[in-house]
Design goal:
The complex is a heterodimer of chains A (453) and B (84). Chain A is α/β, with parallel strands linked by helices. Chain A contains 14 helices and 22 strands. Chain B has one domain: Orthogonal Bundle (Arc Repressor Mutant, subunit A), CATH 1.10.10. The chains are: A alpha/beta (453), B alpha+beta (84). At the A-B interface, strand 1 and strand 2 of A face strand 4, helix 1, strand 5 and helix 3 of B. Strand 2 of chain A pairs antiparallel with strand 4 of chain B. The structure holds pyridoxal-5'-phosphate. The site of pyridoxal-5'-phosphate (PLP) has 15 residues of chain A, from helix 12.
Chain lengths: 453, 84
C-alpha cells in the first residue's frame, strides 16, 4: 500500500491558458517572478509566524549601505557634502536614527516633524525647515534653535521679518526657488520663481532688511526624477543666483540645497521599462549636479556646502511588505484574482508603482494572468493588475519589494489596523520598531459625550 | 459536460479551437483532464483517475477541477450535456 502511494505524481492545479491572452511581457517572454524566501537571512515564513501578517520589514544594513553609496557618489566629486534626511519619506524613529548616525541632518516640513527631529536628538542648527506652512510658533521655535528656515512665499518672509524684530536671535534662512528645468509638470507651487524674477525680489527684500542671515539657496524640482539634466539646469540656476548675490551685495551664501527627487528603482505605473533599468544611479545625479557647480563662477576655494534631501532613493530598497494570501477567485472574464492581506491602505505607493510582488516560497514554473487585490471592501484596492503570477494558494506567503519610502508615513488607518514594523539589524537580529495598532490605540483618541455612554 | 468535437489536442499540451482560431497551452494535469474529457469520461470518473495517479486529496482536487471546468466553459471549449 505504502509503495503504491510513493509512486504518485506530485499534483499541481490544472491550468489552461489562451496563447497571447496573458499579455506577454514587454520583453517578448513571460517573466516569472522569482520567489524571495528570506530577507537579510531570515525566512519570510518565520518572520510572519513570529510577528504576524502582514508585516513591514526594514533592513538596517541596506539603509546604511544605500546611504554610504549616495554619500560616496557626491563626496568623491565635491569637497563639502551634507545629506539631510527627508522625514516625510519615512519618519519611523529607528530609520531617522540610522540616517542621523550616518551623519544626516534632518529635513522637516511641519511642526510635528520638527518636534520629531528634536526628540531624535538632532541639534536645532542641523534641522532644515521646509514647506509652505510653518505656524508663527513653529517659526519662532526654529529661530530660537538656530534652525535653517527655508522660506516658501512672501507671507512667510514678512512673518519672519516681523518675528526677527521681536526676537533676540537673527533668523537663519534660505529661500526656496522654483524654476523651469525642462521637466513637465514644473513644480511652481513652492518657493519663488527664478525665471520671472520673483526669486530676486525675495533676495533683495531679505538683503535690504538686514534682519535675516541668508545662508543658502534651496530647490526641490520634483520627485521620482529620471533625468539628470534637470538637476544640472537647477544647479546652474541656483549658482547663478549665488554669484549674483556676491556681485550685488558682496554676500556669500554658505550652501546650495538641491532638495530630493532622485528616482528609486521602483517601476512607475505604465512605464515601459522596469525602474531598475531606468533609474539613474547616484553617480549619474552627482555628476550632473557637481559638474554644474564646478562650471559656475564659484571660486574653487569658496565652494558652498552642497546639501541633498534625498528621500525615496535612500529608503525604498530597504523596505519589504510581507503577508499571506487570503483567497483565490475567478473574475467574470475568467481571470484569476488573488486576495492578499495587505491593501492600498498600507501600501499607498501602489497608486504610483507597479510594485514588485513575489511569492515567498518555491512553487512550480506555472504562472497565470492574475490581478492581486487587497482585503478592503473597495474597488480601488488593487495591488497589481494583470501580472503573470505563480499559483499561490490560501495561506501562502508573499513579499512586496521596495516599499521603504512613503508607506510608513502615508499609510491609512482605514478598515484595517496598521501592522507591526520590524527592523533587521546588521547582525541579522529582528526588532519591533513600531507596534501593530489595536482597537485600544484608536479608542485612546476618542471620547463619548455623556448622553451616548 | 463534453469537449467540443472539433477541438484538437496535441501531445505536447497544445489545444486548438478551429471555430474561433484560438489556441491554448495546458500544464500536465490540465492536459490529462482534457484528454479524459475527450474520451467522454464523466466528472466522477475523471476525478477517480486523477486521484489514483496524483498525490492530492479529494477535496482539494474537487475545488481545482471545478475551477478548471469553469475556465473551459469560459473559453467555450466544452458543451453542456443536452439534458441540462
Ligand atoms: C522639500 C523636499 N525635500 C525632499 C523631498 C524628498 O523627495 P524624494 O523622496 O523624492 O527624494 C521632498 C519630497 O517631496 C521635498 O518636498
Amino acid at each position: 500500500m505504502k509503495d503504491k502511494k510513493m509512486e504518485k505524481i506530485p499534483f499541481e492545479r490544472p491550468l489552461i491558458q489562451k496563447i497571447n491572452a496573458g499579455l506577454p511581457s514587454k520583453y517578448g517572454m513571460i517573466r516569472r517572478p522569482e520567489p524571495i524566501e528570506d530577507i537579510e537571512g531570515i525566512s519570510v515564513e518565520s518572520l510572519l509566524n513570529e510577528y504576524g501578517s502582514p508585516l513591514f520589514i526594514l533592513s538596517e544594513k541596506m539603509l546604511r549601505k544605500t546611504y554610504q553609496e549616495a554619500y560616496r557618489a557626491f563626496s568623491s566629486r565635491y569637497p563639502k557634502v551634507q545629506f539631510a534626511w527627508s522625514y516625510k519619506t519615512n519618519y519611523l524613529n529607528a530609520v531617522c536614527k540610522i540616517f542621523h548616525q550616518e551623519g544626516s541632518w534632518a529635513e522637516v516640513v511641519s511642526g510635528f516633524e520638527y518636534e520629531k527631529a528634536l526628540a531624535n536628538g538632532v541639534p536645532g542648527s542641523k534641522i532644515i525647515f521646509n514647506g509652505p506652512f510653518k505656524s508663527r510658533e513653529d517659526l519662532k521655535k526654529a529661530v530660537e534653535n538656530d534652525s535653517l528656515i527655508h522660506i516658501d512665499h512672501f507671507d512667510e518672509l514678512y512673518e519672519l521679518l516681523d518675528l526677527a524684530e521681536n526676537l533676540e536671535k537673527r533668523p537663519k534662512a534660505a529661500i526656496r526657488v522654483n524654476m523651469d528645468t525642462g521637466i513637465y509638470p514644473q513644480w511652481d507651487r513652492f518657493g519663488f520663481n527664478y525665471e520671472n524674477g520673483e526669486a530676486w525680489d525675495a533676495l533683495n527684500r531679505i538683503m535690504i532688511s538686514k534682519q535675516i542671515d541668508l545662508l543658502g539657496l534651496h530647490t526641490h524640482i520634483g520627485t521620482y526624477m529620471m533625468t539628470v539634466q534637470a538637476y544640472e539646469k537647477a544647479a546652474m540656476k541656483l549658482a547663478d543666483l549665488a554669484i549674483g548675490l556676491e556681485r550685488k551685495y558682496k554676500h556669500t551664501i554658505k550652501y546650495i540645497d538641491m532638495g530630493g527627487g532622485f528616482a528609486s528603482k521602483n517601476t512607475l505605473k505604465g512605464a515601459y521599462y522596469p525602474g531598475s533599468d531606468t533609474a539613474p544611479s547616484f553617480d549619474d545625479f552627482a555628476e550632473a549636479i557637481v559638474s554644474a557647480l564646478m562650471k559656475s563662477e564659484f571660486k574653487p576655494d569658496h565652494l558652498p556646502l552642497l546639501i541633498l534631501e534625498t528621500g525615496r532613493a535612500l529608503v525604498d530598497d530597504a523596505g519589504w511588505l510581507a503577508g499571506r494570501v487570503v483567497a483565490n477567485k475567478r473574475l467574470a472574464d475568467g481571470r484569476r484574482a488573488t486576495i492578499i492581506d495587505a491593501g492600498v491602505n498600507l501600501l499607498f505607493t501602489s497608486f504610483w508603482y507597479d510594485h514588485d510582488i513575489r511569492p515567498a516560497k518555491q512553487l512550480s514554473d506555472q504562472t497565470e494572468d492574475t490581478t492581486i487585490y487587497g482585503p478592503l471592501c473597495m474597488n480601488i484596492d488593487i495591488i497589481r493588475d494583470h501580472i503573470q503570477f505563480p499559483l499561490l494558494k490560501k495561506g501562502d506567503p508573499y513579499v512586496i519589494r521596495r516599499v521603504g519610502a512613503y508607506n510608513n508615513t502615508q499609510w491609512l488607518q482605514f478598515i484595517t489596523l496598521r501592522p507591526r514594523v520590524v527592523l533587521i539589524d546588521p547582525k541579522g537580529k529582528s526588532h519591533i520598531i513600531r507596534d501593530g495598532e489595536t482597537l485600544e490605540t484608536l479608542n485612546r483618541c476618542e471620547h463619548l459625550p455623556e448622553h451616548l455612554n | 459536460m463534453k469537449l467540443k468535437k472539433n477541438i484538437a489536442i496535441s501531445e505536447t499540451g497544445f489545444v486548438f479551437d478551429p471555430t474561433t482560431g484560438d489556441s491554448y497551452t495546458l500544464n500536465p494535469v490540465g492536459m490529462e483532464i482534457l484528454s479524459l474529457l475527450k474520451e467522454g469520461l464523466e466528472l466522477e470518473a475523471i476525478s477517480a483517475r486523477i486521484l489514483e495517479k496524483y498525490d492530492v486529496e479529494k477535496g482539494v482536487l474537487e475545488r481545482y477541477l471545478y475551477d478548471f471546468l469553469g475556465l473551459l466553459k469560459q473559453y467555450q471549449l466544452v458543451e453542456e450535456d443536452d439534458e441540462n
